[in-house]
C-alpha cells in the first residue's frame, strides 16, 4: 500500500497538473479569440440592434432549421458510420480492405466541391434534404474512422464472455461491443453536428436556408457586420446546447481502455447471405459519395475551354496548401497536447470545462473566425498579421476539438497504470517516456495531426481572409475560378486538392486497423 | 453621405479632352511617371486587395507590372468579405488599393472613412454617374442589368418594355432571379430609390406570387435559359459572353440573348466595378499609377474585350455585338444612393424570395 502512495507522488511529479492546466488554459484562450471578438463587436452594436436581429421570427426559423439539419445529418452519419465501421472491421465482408479505404475517402472531398458536383449532376437538386444528403456523404467518416479504430482495438474478452454466456453474435454486438465503442461514436457524432452548423459550402450551393449562409448574407449583401455577428452569437449558443447535450450522454457511458499493446484481433462475424446485402449497402454509400464528385470533375475537365493555367501555378498553390496546412496542424497539435493530456491524466471539473470550451468556436463559420483573427492580428498581434502563423492560429481556433479528441484517445490508450508499473519496476522517467508513453500515444497524436491537416487543406473562408497576401492555395484558387464559372479551369485545382487530401485520408483509414489486422474466426 | 463635401463644379472639360487625346494618340502615355503628383517617393510596390477574382484581372495586373516596373502584391477574395476585412483593419491596413466588384462594397469602405479620396483629374476620366460623388472611389467598368431570354421560347415582340411587367400572369413561372446575389440587390435598391419602397415591395411580392424561379447566381440562370429549362431571367449583361466563352462558342450561337429594357427603365440599371485608394497610400505614387493604369486605354480595352464589361473611359469601344454604353437609355440613378442594402435585404426576405 505504501508503494502505491509513492508511485502516486511520483506520477504527480511526472505530470505536473498545474503546468499542464496553465498550458491547457493558454490553448483554450486561442479557441476563445473568436468569442472575445464577437463580444466586442456585438457589444458595439448596442442592445437595440441586437434585439432587432435576435427577436424576430426569422432568427428562430434559422435556428430551428440549423438544429434540424444538424440532427438529421448527425443521425444518418452515426447510423452509416457505425454500420460501415462494423462491416469493415468485424465481418467477413468481401473486399473488406478496399471498402475500409473507400469508407474514409469522402473526407478528402470538400463540401463545396461535393455540392457543386451534385448540383451539376441532378436536376433541381437543392434545399434542406439535398444539403442533408451531401453533408451526410462528406461527413460520415468523422464517425466511421474513430469507430473502426475503436472496434479493432477493443478488448475481445468481454465479447467472448458474452458469447460464452449464450448471447448470439448480433445481440453481443448490440449489447457489448457497441457499449465499448460508445465514446468513439459520441465524439464522432459531436464533430459531425458542429461541422454541419459551421458548414458554408454545401448549404450555400444547395440553397438550404440555415444559419451560416444567413451570416454570410448579412455581410455580403447588407455590408452589415453587426447583424452577421449577432447571428453568429446564436450559433455559439446552439453549440453550447449540443456540446452540453453530448456531455450529458457521455457521463452515463463507461470508459473502456484496454491495457497492453497489440492484443488479440477480435472475432469476425460470418455474414452468410447478408454479405451481398452489405456489399450493396457499401457500394450504395461510397458510389454516390465518391462517384458523383469524380464524374463531375471529369466532366469539368472535358466541358469548358477556360484555360487551366500554367502547371507552375498549380504546383505553387499545392505547395502553399501543404505549407499552411502543415503549419496549422503543427500549431493545433501543440495547443491540443496539454488539453488532451489534462483530460486523460487529470480528469475533473477543470479538465471537462476546458475541453468543452475548446468546442465553442468549432461551429462558427470560417468567415467569422477569419474576421476575428483579422481583429486580433490588427489590434493585438500586428507583427503576425497576414503571416502563415496567424492563419495557423485561425486553424487552431477552428479545429482544436479534432486534435484534442485524438490526443485524449491516444493518452487513454497508454493508461497511467502502465507507466506507474514501469516506474515501480525501476525504469527511469525518461526511459518510460521513450519506451512506453511515446510509442503508445504517437500514432494517435499523428492521426489527429493528419486529420487537422486534411481539414485545413479544405478550409476556405478563413483562408481567404488570413493568408499572406499573394499566397494562394488550392482551395482559394479553386474558389477564384468557380466564382466566375470557369469550371474547366477550376477542375485541376479541385482534382489536385482531392488527390492530395486522399493520401492522408488513406493513411487514417489504414490506421484504424482495417488494412492490417489479421482475420480470426472468419474467412477472407 | 450628407456631410460629404461636394466636389466643385468640374473645371475639366479641357482635362477630359486632353486625356482622351493623349490616350488616343499615345497609347500608354497614361502610365508615365510624369503624371503623378509630388508626394512620397515610389517604393515600386503596391498592395492591392482585389474583390474581383484572379481570372478576371490578373492579365491586367501583369501588364501593369511590365509597363510600370511596379510590383503588385495582390490579395484575391470575395468583395464583401474583403470590405469587411478592410473595415476590421481600419487605418492599419496593409492595402494600398481596393479593387471592388461593385459600388456597394466601395460605399461601405467609404462610409467608414477609410479611403484617401481621388483627385479630380482621375475622377473626371469617368462620367459622373459612375463614380462617388464625394470623390472617394471611381468606377472602372460598367455592368448593365438585362433580361436574358431563350429566343426559342420568347418572341422578340413579346419582350417586356419594363421590368415591372414581369409580375403579370403571362410571365408566371418563367422568370429566373438570384435574390441572394449582390447585383440583384443593387438593382432592387435602385428601384427603391427611383420608385419608392412601396412599389418595390409590390414588385418583389409580385415576383414571388408569379412563381419566380430562384437560382444561386447569374451564371446558373443564363445556363438554364440557354438550355431551355428557363424562359427568361434577370442577370448582368456579360454572363451570356461568359457562357459562350466557357462553351467555346460565340454569343450569336447561344439560345440565350440579352434584352436591354428601354427608356431608362430601372431594369437596365448600370452598376460599376471600381477602385479606391486607402488612406495610408494617399500620397503613394505607385497606388496612383495603378489607378491611372486601370483607367488607361490598355486596361479599359482589356476589360471591354475580355470580360465584356463596359469601358467607362471615353474613346474605348465595347465588345463587338454589345451596344455602346452611351447608346443605352439607362435609368438616372446616383450609385451613391445604393448604400442602403440592409433595408433591401429585409424587403427581399419579407417577400419570401430569400
- Tell me about the largest β-sheet of chain B: 10 strands, mixed
Query: What general form of chain A does the structure show?
Result: globular
The secondary-structure class of chain A comes to mainly alpha
Query: What Rg of chain A, in angstroms, do the CA atoms define?
Result: 23 Å
What's the mean pLDDT score of chain A? Answer: 83
Task: Describe the secondary structure blueprint for this structure.
The complex is a heterodimer of chains A (524) and B (354).
Chain A: H1 2-14, H2 17-54, H3 57-90, H4 96-104, H5 111-121, H6 128-139, H7 141-153, H8 156-164, H9 169-180, H10 182-198, H11 201-205, H12 211-222, H13 225-252, H14 274-303, H15 311-345, H16 349-357, H17 366-379, H18 388-413, H19 416-424, H20 429-458, H21 461-466, H22 474-482, H23 487-514
Helix pairs in contact in A: 1-19, 2-13, 2-15, 2-16, 2-17, 2-18, 3-4, 3-6, 3-7, 3-10, 4-23, 5-6, 5-14, 7-10, 7-23, 8-9, 10-13, 12-13, 14-23, 15-16, 15-18, 15-20, 17-18, 18-20, 19-20, 20-23, 22-23
Chain B: H1 13-26, E1 45-50, H2 54-68, E2 71-76, H3 79-89, E3 97-100, H4 103-111, H5 120-123, E4 137-150, E5 175-177, H6 182-209, E6 213-214, H7 218-227, E7 232-236, H8 239-247, E8 256-259, E9 270-277, H9 285-294, H10 297-307, E10 310-311, H11 341-351
Parallel strand pairs in B: 1-2, 1-3, 5-6, 5-7
Antiparallel strand pairs in B: 3-9, 4-7, 4-8, 4-9, 4-10
